[in-house]
Amino acid sequence: MQGPRSTQGRGALYDSILDTIGDTPCVRVKKLVPDHVRLYVKAEFFNPAGSVKDRLAISIIEEAERSGQLKPGQTVVEATSGNTGVGLAMVCAAKGYPFVATMPTSVSIERRKLMRFLGARVVLTPKEDKAMGCYLKAVELAEANQWFLARQFETDANAKIHENTTAQEILADFAGDRLDYWVTGYGTGGTFSGVAKVLRRERPDTKIVLSEPINAQLIQSGHRQDRSPDGAPIGSHPAFEPHMIQGWTPDFIPAVLQESIDQKRFDQLVPIDAQDGIEASKLLAQKEGIFTGISGGSTFSVALKIAETAEPGTVILCMLPDTGERYLSSPLFEGVGEDMDAAERALSESTPGFHLPD
Which of 69, 232, 309, 353 sits a CA distance of 20 to 30 A from 226? Predict the structure, then answer.
């Protein structure tokens, strides 16, 4: 049994919330995994705005500041399914830039509210126009107003931050230990591209497993994405269908992702049903106390399948991109009631005091 907990502090004082981005923990999952396998999750919800996209947000803004592309007080605009927008809203608030997000109406309502609470403005586009619709709206607004377009789907700052931080954390955490599999999904492709590039060089024995929604297998289809000379996508990808894994797989293949596809930086490509991701997210929460969203649950579901047939001693790491609180209005929380159910009401009535009225 573990003794009484104590802490000694971080040993550092921070000048800004932005200085706390990164250094997220790898946590072992025990109850759901065969005893002969070690499975860890990299809990990106420890970032200050709750997702892996905090890394991308700070990288985009600081790289643009260094290059002079972003001027003091200039408005930043970006298309987002939510997490990048929340991260950029946090970074822009801390640094003093106005921020405008464009996003489809299909994305969970709490993401809009989080951005607005952080001082951003949110411009909604019809869900029928998919991610491409909000992408084109962001481009229009940037050109019409001379705003800085963050370009998360094309910028080198995306994969670079994961080379310099996420990948280095993984190398440090597993130094001297096995790391047989690294499992991730993709949205922009930044996490995958940055980490995979480093693992290929520093841990070539690690198998890289990439996942995409079973009804939106853009990579598996083999169809190349049409794009303009600057890397911007042209039109929706023909293999795309709407899916429930928010933050994963827009209706086009981002340029950030395309390079790693061309370089064959993954060993396995695994489709995942969103419902399996939802169930895996619930399992993580209820059996391990680890709270992640549908994207994290989907990655974890793929990792569990690998663990089921893995050789003794196998070590697996999977990415958990964000917190489950981003999904309160999504299918992840269907069936989770606000009022007491019959069992809860029976508990309430089993003792004499403090009964709610019928």
Answer: 69
The Cα–Cα gap between 93 and 33 comes to: 41
Q: Kindly name the residue from 51, 81, 193, 295 that is annotated as catalytic.
A: 295
Q: What is the pLDDT of residue 1?
A: 61
User: How would CATH label the architecture of 17-46+165-333?
Assistant: 3-Layer(aba) Sandwich (3.40)
Domain 53-149 class in CATH: alpha beta
Reference 253, options 320, 186, 157, 184; nearest CA is: 186
Half-sphere exposure of 135 (CA within 13 A, CB side): 19
Q: Is the pTM of this model over 0.70?
A: yes
- Section 147-167 average pLDDT: 95
Q: How confident is the model at residue 2 (pLDDT cuts 50, 70, 90)?
A: low
The length of the chain is: 358
List the one residue out of 221, 143, 152 whose CA is nearest residue 190.
152
Q: Taking the domains of the chain in order of start, what are their residue ranges?
A: 17-46+165-333, 53-149
| Predicted local distance difference test score (pLDDT) of residue 189 | 95
A 10 A CB-CB count for 28 gives: 11
Q: Which helix (H) or strand (E) holds 79?
A: strand 76-79
Query: Do the beta carbons of residue 331 and residue 278 sit within 8 Å?
Result: yes
Q: pLDDT above 70 covers what percent of the chain?
A: 99
pLDDT, position 9: 87
- From 145, 155, 162, 154, select the one nearest 76 (Cα to Cα): 145
**295 is a catalytic site residue:** yes
**Can 53 be counted among the known catalytic residues?**
yes
pLDDT at 64 over 90: yes
- pLDDT digit string, tens, across residues 92-108: 999 999 999 999 998 88
**Location of structure tokens 């047989």:** 180
Give the number of other Cβ atoms within 10 Å of residue 341's Cβ: 8
Query: Rounded mean pLDDT of the chain?
Result: 95
Distances (CA, A) of 334 to 18, 282, 330: 34, 11, 7
